[in-house]
């Protein structure tokens, strides 16, 4: 049998971070009492007219600019017709042609050090459906329309992804970018970032795509990985037995770790798309778009380049640039003390692992802020604190948010930097060990380490040994 390879495309739904819904002023807050955040528009009452949310439009355009898409000056909303108990209009208001954004791409750093570009086909806006709540005991289903009308963007990739690993890396990078630029809150457990996976197999090297299955509504990176692995195996099994792969919509059962068929896959024409007559075309003036562009933070490649120019190692730079909140933390610390390399290595070795260990979702939750980290970096750079002390004391400072200058000094752990203080100790050592001092003066180099040892002992380990050595040499040879 020919060797097959997977071809994967993703459709990601991200909920836009707006206070109100896409076409009415009902709040988008999560977790409210069922059917309290609703009105005549989002429950599809006859005659109720939608009104476009400008902030949603701005966020969708922001996502497009950040992903290098072309943002269309004019786009159109259409009705996507289907019946669902939690879809009160009987249609979803979505965009078919033209969508707000077309094209674009996202670059991924892969584990083997290579960079992969995943192209985007389009980004369009649409509203979300409500939710059906199934009461298993009573055998009843309730409909909650609080979510109906919540603004979403759907980001559709080209089928450029070749493995479960790449798919997960792409989603993580996309999620981190969209959260960073404030397009979405991205809380996956609340369904604010979820993804459909299109997957087919084709003979290695062949340009012809096979029949694809579409796995719906995955809301965790882990499930995406598992579902793709399972589906690759399932489709490979069908090919090996000479059985056809059916074009169908699949559901991933995370408890069993397998996909199962929901329905045969529908095509665009099944939805009878037509322009939504209640909404005018969406127009984005060029000045408005230019303003959005100015407000955008640097892209990931730009951040990486900037950190690289500050002298950070590649791994450190990507660690800091990709972790939400870490770059802002780093920038604040560097603003307070311009020691980027030291700050980056403290973040890599101590701070970020401590955040992880403490199970913090965002590093801004840490009591130990960027100013404190900058102080620790400064103490280390000027030799007042050694690596060992920093490492040993970090957990305590991190937990309490203590000021390292005060904390380490109080504990007597800062090294003596003051030449006068060290000199006093050196004179005392020379008085106690005149013989050794003389033999060093006579050229016996190795006695120096003995004398430095005595200085360290007398200063209870607080003298900087390098500095003590230099001063000893100076004083003895005077
Ligand atoms: Zn409403």
Account of the 3D structure:
- With 478 residues, the chain is α+β, with helices and mostly antiparallel strands.
- It has three domains: 4-287, no CATH class; 298-410, no CATH class; 419-476, Arc Repressor Mutant, subunit A.
- It contains 15 helices and 17 strands.
- The strands form four sheets. Strands 1, 2, 6, 7, 8, 11, 12, 13, 14 and 15 form a ten-stranded mixed β-sheet that branches.
- The longest helix is centred in the middle third of the chain and has 20 residues, at 221-240.
- The chain is elongated.
- The mean pLDDT is 91.
- The structure holds zinc ion.
- Zinc ion is lined by residues 21, 24, 26, 38-39, 41-42, 149.
Secondary structure layout:
Layout: E1 4-15, H1 54-66, E2 70-71, E3 74-75, E4 78-81, E5 91-94, E6 101-102, E7 105-109, E8 115-127, E9 131-135, E10 140-144, E11 151-157, H2 164-180, E12 193-203, E13 213-218, H3 221-240, E14 248-253, E15 258-264, E16 274-275, E17 282-283, H4 286-295, H5 300-309, H6 314-322, H7 326-336, H8 340-357, H9 370-381, H10 387-400, H11 404-410, H12 419-432, H13 434-441, H14 447-458, H15 465-476
Parallel strand pairs: 13-14
Antiparallel strand pairs: 1-11, 1-12, 2-6, 3-17, 4-5, 4-16, 6-8, 7-8, 8-11, 9-10, 12-13, 14-15
Helix pairs in contact: 2-3, 5-6, 6-8, 7-8, 7-9, 8-9, 12-14, 12-15, 13-14, 14-15
The chain binds zinc ion (ZN).
Zinc ion is lined by residues 21, 24, 26, 38-39, 41-42, 149.
């Amino acid at each position: 049998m020919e060797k097959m390879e997977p071809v994967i495309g993703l459709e990601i739904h991200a909920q836009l971070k707006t206070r109100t819904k896409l076409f009415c002023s009902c709040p988008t807050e999560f977790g409210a009492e069922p059917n309290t955040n609703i009105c005549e528009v989002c429950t599809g009452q006859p005659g109720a007219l939608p009104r476009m949310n400008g902030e949603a439009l701005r966020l969708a355009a922001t996502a497009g600019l950040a992903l290098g898409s072309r943002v269309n000056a004019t786009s159109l909303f259409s009705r996507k017709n289907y019946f669902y108990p939690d879809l009160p209009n009987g249609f979803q208001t979505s965009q078919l042609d033209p969508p707000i954004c077309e094209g674009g791409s996202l670059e991924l750093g892969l584990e083997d050090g290579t960079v992969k570009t995943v192209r985007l086909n389009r980004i369009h806006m649409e509203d979300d459906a409500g939710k059906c709540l199934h009461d298993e005991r009573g055998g009843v289903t309730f409909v909650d329309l609080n979510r109906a009308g919540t603004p979403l963007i759907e980001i559709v990739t080209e089928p450029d992804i070749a493995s479960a690993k790449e798919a997960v890396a792409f989603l993580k990078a996309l999620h981190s970018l969209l959260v960073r630029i404030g397009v979405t809150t991205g809380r996956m457990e609340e369904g604010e970032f979820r993804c459909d996976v299109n997957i087919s197999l084709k003979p290695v090297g062949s340009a012809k795509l096979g029949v694809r299955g579409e796995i719906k509504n995955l809301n965790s990176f882990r499930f995406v990985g598992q579902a793709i692995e399972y589906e690759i195996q399932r489709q490979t099994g069908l090919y090996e037995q000479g059985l056809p792969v059916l074009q169908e919509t699949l559901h991933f059962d995370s408890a069993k770790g397998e996909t199962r068929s929901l329905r045969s896959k529908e095509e665009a024409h099944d939805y009878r798309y037509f322009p939504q007559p209640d909404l005018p075309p969406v127009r984005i003036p060029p000045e408005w778009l230019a303003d959005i562009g100015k407000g955008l933070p640097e892209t990931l490649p730009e951040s990486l380049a900037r950190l690289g120019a500050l002298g950070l190692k590649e791994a450190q730079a990507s660690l800091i640039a990709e972790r939400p909140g870490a770059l802002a933390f780093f920038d604040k610390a560097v603003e307070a003390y311009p020691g980027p390399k030291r700050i980056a290595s403290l973040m890599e070795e101590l701070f970020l692992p401590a955040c992880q260990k403490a199970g913090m979702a965002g590093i801004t939750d840490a009591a130990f802020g960027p100013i404190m980290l900058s102080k620790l970096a400064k103490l280390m750079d000027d030799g007042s604190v050694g690596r060992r002390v920093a490492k040993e004391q970090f957990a305590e400072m991190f937990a309490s948010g203590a000021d390292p200058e005060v904390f380490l000094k109080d504990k007597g752990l800062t090294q003596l930097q003051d030449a006068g203080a060290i000199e006093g100790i050196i004179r005392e050592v020379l008085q106690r060990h005149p013989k050794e001092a003389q033999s060093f003066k006579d050229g016996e180099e190795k006695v120096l380490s003995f004398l430095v040892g005595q200085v360290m002992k007398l200063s209870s380990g607080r003298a900087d040994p390098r500095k003590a050595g230099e001063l000893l040499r100076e004083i003895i040879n005077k």
